Amino acid sequence: MTDSTSFDKVWPERLGRISSITRDLAKPIELESMLYQVVDAAKELLDAEGGTVWRYLAPSHQLESRVARGMEPVRISAERGIVGECLRSRAIINVPDCYADARFDRSFDQRTGYRTRCMLTLPLMGYDELLVGVLQVVNRRDGVFDADDETMASVLAAQCAVALQRAQLTERLVESEKVAQEIEVARAVQMGTLPKKAPDIPGYDFAGAFRPADQTGGDTYDFVPTPSGGVMVLMGDATGHGIGPALSATQVRAMLRVAQRLGADLDDTFRHINDQLVDDLPEDRFVTAFLGHLDPVSHALHYHSGGQGPLLHFHAADGTCDVHPPTTAPLGAMAQIFLRAPRVIDLAPGDVFALLSDGVYEYCNAANEEFSEQRVVELLRRHHREPMARLRDRLLGELRQFGQGAPQLDDISIVLIRRLGGATAAVATSAAVRREYARSFDSLDPIFAFVRSVLDEHGAGDADAYAVNLAVEELFTNMVKYNADGAGPIVLEMEYASGDLICRLTDPDSDRFDVTAAPDANVGLPAEQRRPGGLGLHLIRRLLDDIDYEYSGRSSRITFRKAFTKTWPQTPAMTRDAPAGAFDRQRLPLDLPENSEDGAMFEIRQGEQGTIAFAGRLDAAQCAKAQEFLDAAGAVQAFDFRGLEYISSAGLGVLLKAHKRLLASGGRLRLINVSSHIYDIFRFSGFDQVFDVERVAS
After folding, report:
1. Beta-carbon neighbour count of residue 133 at 10 Å?
2. Beta strand pairing call for 670-674 and 119-125
3. Angle at 137 between CA 68 and CA 102, to 5 degrees
4. 3-class SS at 638?
5. 418 C-beta neighbours (distance < 10 Å), count
6. Is the N or C terminus of the chain more exposed, i.e. has fewer CB atoms within 10 Å?
7. 599-647 per-position pLDDT tens digit
């Protein structure tokens, strides 16, 4: 036992030594060297013959130490001996006579001839009381370890624990950086095997994409030209994602290239790749893969699909989409003793063949809702006329928007093939027509008249006419509402090209506002939480085929495109012989007053059996009139829309206000005789779930 006089002399000296050790341990140092430095410091401070630092390996619940430099580390169970008990109890264990303690493990002494007399064992606790190891010091040269030694060792252990934890974190960081570098090399190799550009096959348009869920992924795709002038098309999806599946996917692509160089046909290539994967892959691994040959002369796509599906064939002529399943088992699952004849898809002018991996269809949002085959088909229907590279980018963009920040859990691969030509190549093109309009809702009537004249000239159907009118109104009224003080008129240009109506609205003096980046409205909210704001852009995204935004200087230009589908009934919304700006009164069940001005085009009045009847066009310019009438009418619970030809997002706001007033008194707004056009607006905006809607009898 150290007396108080000698302790008073030794303690400051030891504290100074600990401070020096702490400074040394704070320096960058390799982990193994640091452990020996800790042991040397403990031996010096406590005047001991030996010591050991045991690192705690939490995943395996083991303790590891190095007995001497150059030797392999020793590992023992964290339940073993005195060191194991110190780990469990997280308390200092001071053993004055090791051979008298049953917990002491004598095996080391028996192997080396060394005799351990006394032992001091301390837990090493890092940040947040995290256990990082155990420090053991043995054989004090002068007697046994006492309470003063325990105090001194505790101070040293606290410093050593922090240094050890920091060194371990540094070691893991260095190791992870090495792994990251290796993964980056693997990613570069894998991405380097993908096609550098789409095939140049006359009469066809190709596009592809690969987006791995991790740094590397299990998907691949390829286009391989054949001597006959055709192209082999591959898309593969190995089970899982990461480096292992990436190697499998790359192997499939390499075998395809080798087979083509050897002149193998479609059947032999598919069989060769499958049988090689059977030999190479573990029993629980396989690759779903599509392999097809496109003949640009016969326009036939012959293919085998090993577990890869659905395969989508969009028919441009009638807007239908065939969904084809896989034709055989995944590659590598079993030997192909008998291979059926390849399936054939005949591509007509304008047709699109879409080959997508599971990562597209099964992409989930935060509500765990999948993107689904239906959404892909709808995207093809809206945008099949576009270049395939743009269609690919649209699909990726819609996936991101649908996910709303949810992580991508599976690899995404996309292969798109479109046959060009057909009717769309010979459709007439008209010169652009330009008009200027004052910044006022009063400009809506002449705008509608101008739009109508262009639509009439090119035979637009009801659906197309409604979509174009709505888009023009929403964009124009936004420019007026949010930039009423801008200088100069707003310019509207319209032209017709290859079956598409192209419209441009230009505000020459405005702040930047990118309509393509604005978020969609949340159409799933209950009525009490609904707000009409933002619905306009939400609606036009669903009615148009394309919308772009440009900003230069102070000028904003919005360009949208609407492909004329003519899939709705062709009864015109307005008679073709009506004067410009006049609404077709013959189609309305209500008589508009004879003295009403052409261009008013809206009427609201008390109808039969307590209803309120609407006629004409409820656009932004007419909302004040409608709101004033409804405020004076009281709580009428049914609106008759038989005469209503058009409603914009501003009109929806009028209905929403009336509905909320009814909800407050225990009622609910009922809309009757709703046309198919207006019902679609309710459906796109989610108001079909807010109001009670009765569609007009067909």
Report:
1. 28
2. unpaired
3. 105
4. strand
5. 25
6. C
7. 447 899 888 777 899 999 998 889 999 999 988 887 677 899 988 989 9
- Name residues whose C-beta falls within 8 Å of residue 192's C-beta, 6 or more positions apart in sequence: none
In angstroms, rounded to a whole number, what is the distance separating the alpha carbons of residues 481 and 154?
Answer: 72
Q: Which residues partner with 491 through β-bridges?
A: 436, 506
- In this prediction, what percent of the chain has a pLDDT beyond 70? 79
The Cα angle at residue 57 between residues 140 and 129, in degrees rounded to 5:
75
**What is the Cα gyration radius of the chain?**
38
Distance CA 145, CA 43 (A): 12
Q: What is the pLDDT of residues 62-81, one digit of tens each?
A: 988 865 555 567 888 888 88
Residue 666: how many CB atoms within 10 A of its CB?
Answer: 7
d(CA 508, CA 488): 7
Pairwise CA distance, residues 93 & 62, whole Å: 19
Cα–Cα distances (Å) from 106 to 98, 113, 117, 457, 520, in that order, read 9, 10, 11, 102, 73
Q: Write out the two tokens for 414.
A: 């996309």
* pLDDT tens-digit series, residues 81-105: 899 999 999 999 999 999 999 989 8
Residues with Cβ within 8 Å of 344's Cβ and at least 6 positions away in sequence, in order, are 300, 301, 302, 303
The residue type of 353 is: F
d(CA 395, CA 406): 16
Residues facing 135 on adjacent strands: 53, 122
Tell me if 563 sits within 8 A of 544, measured CB to CB. Answer: no
Instruction: Classify residue 208 as exposed, middle or buried by CB count within 10 Å of its CB (0-12, 13-18, 19+).
Output: buried
Which spans in 226-326 are helix H? 243-261, 266-280
Do 394 and 383 meet the contact criterion of CB atoms below 8 Å apart?
yes
Which position has the token pair 């096959």? 201
- Half-sphere exposure (CA, 13 Å, Cβ side) for 260? 22
User: Angle at which helices 243-261 and 147-192 pack, to 10 degrees?
Assistant: 20
Cβ count within 10 A of residue 482? 12
